[in-house]
Amino acid sequence: MRCLLAVLSLLAAPALAQETSALIAERGLAGARTQLLAQAPSADRDLAIAATRFLGGVEAAFQARHRIGATDPLVPLPLLGATLPPNPDPQPMTADFVTAMMRDLSQAMQDTRDALPDGPATLTLDLRDLWLDVDGDGTRGPAEDLAALSGLPLPEGPAVVRFDAADIHWLRAYTHLIDGVATLILAFDPEPALAHRIALDAALAEQFAEPPGQMARAPNFDMQARAFGPIVDRVAVVIQTLRRQPDPALTRAAGDHLRAMVAANRVFWTEVAQETDNDREWIPNDAQQAALGFALPPETGSMWLAILDEVDQALAGRLLIPFWRFAPGHGVDLAMWLDDPRPVDVTDWVQGTAALPYARPGLTVGRDNWDRFLNGFQGRAGLYMLLLN
Questions:
Q1: Of 93, 164, 152, nearest to 128 (Cα)?
Q2: Cα(296)–Cα(384) distance, rounded to whole angstroms?
Q3: Which tens digits make up the pLDDT trace of 70-81?
Q4: Over residues 47-75, mean pLDDT
Q5: For residue 257, which of 106, 61, 78 has the smallest C-alpha distance?
Q6: Are 365 and 321 in contact (CB under 8 A)?
Q7: How far apart are CA 337 and CA 288, in angstroms?
Q8: What is the pLDDT of residue 12?
Q9: Which of 155, 193, 308, 370 could anchor a disulfide with 237, C-beta 3.0 to 4.6 Å?
């Protein structure tokens, strides 16, 4: 009887794995993951678990923002730049808000990589089933669809994608990209800058709580403060954070993640190029069609790999970053900064004095590969850069 039950569980696992999309639609990411963890181990199950861990990390970051009412775009970065549903009753922000969010996000990306199967696997998802519980109430709201939150355009009707062996490397690459950005933010430690902002908010609240007195006849800037104050606060937090001494161990770790992103992307595009099927593809080769209906320019893989190769060489210091005031044949050594970082004073970097310690002669990154990519995608280049990572 025990052997029979084991055989039945193995036979049921692929069928249950195919229901991952419906599980997410009905129970959310956490509920689907709990159900998947109860299934018999298989490569397909592990890929489904990895997908829920990845999206769960994004969901947790959105929930952290929603709790404090930070629902407008904060800065133009992944996760921080998305518009979220409003929160009518936000909690006060704490100084460790960004630090905690980035640490949790980094851990979620590591958990995703740990869950990825070593061998081939498939996962079929209808992207219309996917949603993020942004407000944490356990129910799906009209503004919590993944497509709406991510800005991913979907075709009419079902948007079914069959993620296959190559896409495992795409997901691994994306975890390293997000982990690299999160680690770089942690390297600068934004907590003190956010503490200054919180102290300013408290002082301003005390001012407005006092009777206006005679000074009420002075010009009233309340409208301007409400309109521009949050923007000024965000810019100030970024500038103040960049002025801090970065942690060299974390800047080096961020560089390692970005190099791992490039390595995983190379494997992904190598495997995509070898595919001969055409089954609901996520990112197709030149002989396939995308399940979501978008058309990639011919040789997209080679164009993107050429850009990633330059990124890899810049991270290793073999190519230099061109600087607007440097003579031809001179540039900024990014690898040198990642290994021995200094605070980033925006004014000094724009002027050039802060760039001098990292300047050296050598071959700089050119425009040819970027121009080829931009011309191929025309006005859609930014969206597809996020897709291709």
A1: 152
A2: 9
A3: 998 877 666 677
A4: 94
A5: 106
A6: yes
A7: 41
A8: 41
A9: 193
Whether residue 328 has pLDDT greater than 50: yes
- Dist CA 31 CA 101 (whole Å): 22
Structure tokens at 145: 């669809």
- Cβ atoms 147, 128 nearer than 8 A: yes
Cβ–Cβ under 8 Å, residues 105 and 178? yes
User: Mean pLDDT over residues 92-111, rounded?
Assistant: 97
Cα–Cα distance between 141 and 27 in angstroms, integer? 13
Contact 320, 314 (CB under 8 A): yes
Closest of 335, 331, 338, 333 to residue 364, by C-alpha: 331
Could you tell me which of 357, 293, 355 has the C-alpha nearest to residue 324? 355
Q: What is the token pair recorded at 119?
A: 């061998």
The answer to whether the beta carbons of residues 118 and 48 sit under 8 Å apart is no
Percent of the chain at pLDDT exceeding 90: 78
Three-state DSSP class for residue 380: helix
**Average confidence (pLDDT) over 340-361:** 98
Task: Select from 205, 201, 203 the least CA-distant residue to 229.
Answer: 201
Q: Indicate the average pLDDT of the chain.
A: 91
Note the pTM of the prediction, 2 decimals.
0.91
Provide the residue ranges of all domains of the chain, joining segments of one domain with +: 12-179+255-295, 191-210+224-242
Q: Which residues contact 145 (CB under 8 A, 6 or more apart)?
A: 128, 130, 131
**Residue 330 contacts residue 359 (beta carbons within 8 Å):** yes
Q: What percent of the chain is predicted at pLDDT more than 70?
A: 92
| 335, 338, 344, 349 alpha-carbon torsion, rounded to 10° | 0
**Element (DSSP H or E) covering residue 223:** helix 222-242
Which residue in 322, 314, 309 sits closest to 359, CA to CA? 322
The DSSP code sequence of 155-217 is: -SS--EEEE-HHHHHHHHHHHHHHHHHHHHHHHH--HHHHHHHHHHHHHHHHHHHS--GGGGG
Q: Which residue has the higher pLDDT, 246 or 380?
A: 246
Higher pLDDT residue, 266 or 228? Answer: 266
